[in-house]
Amino acid sequence: MDSKSIAHLAAEACDDRKANDIQLIFIRDVSSLADWIIISEGFSDVQVRAIIKSVELKLKDELNLIPIRKEGVNEAKWALLDYGDVIVNVLQTKERQYYGLESFWSNGKTYIYKKGV
């Protein structure tokens, strides 16, 4: 499965747990870090953990993928799953506003996730 399909599946998993403002940013042409960065928002520690768990389970169950690295899951203010070509970020509102990842990756191509598209 290609990285675009993985990114969309991860975004779908975020949406399954009601993540807010899910954005997929294609960065392959501007960075060697990954192909896709996903940014989404949870409104509490519990929701951030639930979103992360949803992504992990969906990618494991459907694609047999496990993250290379996980960060921030216990604190659940800014959690990250690194799948190599796809990096999933789930932040609480305050952290998302503070770090401004969308601005940092503004040289990539941004897509707003819409269910079924």
Task: Give the class-level CATH name.
Answer: Alpha Beta
Structural class: alpha+beta
- Biggest pleated sheet: 6 strands, mixed
| Largest sheet: spatial strand order | 3-4-5-2-1-6
| Principal-axis shape | globular
**What is the count of helical runs?**
4
Rg over alpha carbons: 13 Å
How far apart are the termini?
18 Å
CATH names the topology as: Beta Polymerase, domain 2
Provide the succession of SSEs.
HEEHEEEHHE
Runs with pLDDT <50, length 5+? none
Number of separate structural domains:
1
CATH architectural label: 2-Layer Sandwich
Q: Give the averaged pLDDT, no decimals.
A: 96
Name the helicity range. 25-40%
Residues in β-strands, percent: 25-35%
CATH 4th-level superfamily: Beta Polymerase, domain 2
The total of beta strands comes to: 6
Quick rundown:
The chain is of the alpha+beta class and 117 residues long. Helices cover 38% and strands 28% of the residues.
Task: Kindly list the characteristics that best describe this protein.
single chain, alpha+beta, Beta Polymerase, domain 2, 4 helices, globular
Furnish the topology, listing elements before pairings.
Layout: H1 3-16, E1 20-26, E2 36-42, H2 45-63, E3 69-71, E4 78-82, E5 86-92, H3 93-99, H4 101-104, E6 109-112
Parallel strand pairs: 2-5
Antiparallel strand pairs: 1-2, 1-6, 3-4, 4-5
Structure description:
- This protein has 117 residues and is α+β, with helices and mostly antiparallel strands.
- The protein has one domain (3-112): Beta Polymerase, domain 2.
- The chain has helices at residues 3-16, 45-63, 93-99, 101-104, and strands spanning 20-26, 36-42, 69-71, 78-82, 86-92, 109-112.
- It has a six-stranded mixed beta sheet.
- The longest helix is centred in the middle third of the chain and has 19 residues, at 45-63.
- It is globular.
